[in-house]
Amino acid sequence: MMTPEAKLTTLGNAFASKEGVPLPHGEGLQFEFPGGCLDLTRHLIDADVMTTLLEHSEAKQLCATRDAMFAGERINTSEDRAVLHVALRGGIQHPIEVDGEDPVGYATKQLDRMLDFADAVRNGKIQASSGVRFTDVINIGIGGSDLGPRMAVEALRASASGPKVHFVANVDGHDFELVTRELDPKTTLCLVASKTFTTLETMMNARTARAWIAEAVGDDQVGAHFAALSTNAEAVQAFGIHPDRMFGFRDWVGGRFSMWSPIGLSLACAIGSEGFRELLAGAAAMDQHFAKAPVAQNAPMLLGLLGYWCRVHLGFAGHAVIPYDRRLGRLPAYLQQADMESNGKRVSASGEPLTGPTGALVFGEPGTDAQHAFFQWLHQGT
Questions:
Q1: Positive or negative, the Cα torsion across 75, 76, 80, 85?
Q2: Per-residue confidence of the chain (382 residues) as pLDDT tens digits?
Q3: What's the rounded Cα separation, in Å, for the pair 47 and 251?
Q4: In 75-218, which ranges are E strands?
Q5: Cα–Cα distance for residue pair 114/181, rounded to 1 Å
Q6: CA angle 245, 243, 144 (to 5 degrees)
Q7: Do the Cβ atoms of 225 and 185 come closer than 8 Å?
Q8: Among the three residues 256, 271, 286, which one is the final residue of a domain in this structure?
Q9: Phi-psi map region of 32: left, alpha, beta (phi>0 left; psi -120 to 50 alpha)
């Protein structure tokens, strides 16, 4: 009997010799999910492909792995860790325990501390060393400590009502200089986003920021202008930041999924605790959809299966993300890291060398810009 994988190979070879016929609209590939609608009718698939992809998901125990993740099992086998970013946003609705601790309870406590701090910055209860309100916040991070918050702050800028939020990630000195050129160090709060407080690029920029602040307010007042998104209390204190201004998260939060943890403090400073909790509620609604919807109607699972079909069996090496809402201009970069860092592996979960592709090249720009840039090559290039 032919396995689902073998069937997909046969179907992929057949599609390679023709353009493919998208499923009709009535075949169940248009449906709503929390916060949106998913239309997959233009994918190069037919009913046989869809059926076989669903069979493949069963053969690979996709649902069982998802359930293990929500249960707090250590599905990150290479690092022997649980994967529980869903705990940050209320996506887990049953008691679980990881390393003798309730992860939801821990996440909730850190969230409350972080949001109390953000609101205090916004309303002036937490002030600069001179006793005035902070006018600006700089998030100093890299990778997941930068891409997620930066994307969300840009997307929600119209809803922002707090201090202006800026981001520094590049160790090229021009990045820090250009961001701070118009800022007053005496009214600027710097957030150092590094779980270990040792990330090379982040700490280099943090030391630059410290010198910039110290020159304006004096070295003994620097701590009033900093907060740390970290778990390394010793290093944070050595830098001059009081432990009350340190907000941590456990190792079951991967960097590329950390925006809903204290790494999102810059966003919370921009939109406030109420706005941040609305963001969490939206994520939790999608988590529950992912946890409970059948595979054939499960937006994340279907997108994953179709991504696998397009890359492995149709040979499509690229995956373009083209947002037409200008506010989502940073979404391609955020998804690029989430997808490519996750799938950038050369061995399987069991440590065996892989012989096929593990993912696509994710790229993109806002649609109206992209139409006058790389669309020409995509549509007519050879």
A1: negative
A2: 778 888 788 888 877 766 545 544 445 678 888 888 888 888 888 888 889 999 999 999 999 999 999 999 999 988 889 999 999 998 788 889 999 999 999 999 999 999 999 999 999 999 999 999 999 999 999 999 999 999 999 999 999 999 999 999 999 999 999 999 999 999 999 999 998 999 999 999 999 999 999 999 999 999 999 999 999 999 999 999 999 999 999 989 988 899 999 999 999 999 999 999 999 999 999 999 999 999 999 999 999 999 999 999 999 999 999 999 999 999 999 999 999 998 888 988 888 899 889 999 999 999 999 999 999 888 888 7
A3: 41
A4: 136-140, 164-168, 188-193
A5: 28
A6: 55
A7: yes
A8: 271
A9: beta
Residues 6+ apart with CB under 8 A from 274: none
Are residue 163 and residue 252 in the same domain, yes or no? yes
Distances (CA, A) of 189 to 125, 151, 260: 14, 20, 20
Q: Looking at the domain assignment, is residue 285 inside a domain?
A: no
Please tell me the total count of domains within the chain.
Answer: 2
The residue length of the chain stands at 382
Give one word for 360, left, alpha or beta, with left for phi > 0 and alpha for psi -120 to 50: beta
| Domain limits for position 159 | 109-271
In this structure, the answer to whether residues 245 and 187 fall within a common structural domain is: yes
> Of 219, 65, 50, 209, which is closest to residue 129 (Cα–Cα)?
219
Q: Do both 137 and 223 map to the same domain? A: yes
CATH number of the structural domain spanning residue 220? 3.40.50.10490
- Last residue of one domain, picked from the residues 271, 304, 321: 271
Same domain, 262 and 321: no
Looking at the structure, do residues 35 and 173 belong to the same domain, yes or no? no
User: 237-264 in b/e burial notation, b at 16+ Cβ within 10 A?
Assistant: eebbbeeebbbbbbebbbbbbbbbbbbb
State whether 134 and 248 are in the same domain. yes
Residue 29's φ and ψ, nearest 5 degrees, are -110, 20
Determine, yes or no, domain membership for 242.
yes
Per the CB < 8 A criterion, the answer to whether 261 and 87 are in contact is no
Q: How far apart are CA 48 and CA 33, in angstroms?
A: 24
> How far from the centroid of its chain's Cα atoms is residue 180's Cα?
26
Q: Which helix (H) or strand (E) holds 233?
A: helix 233-239
- pTM given for the model: 0.91
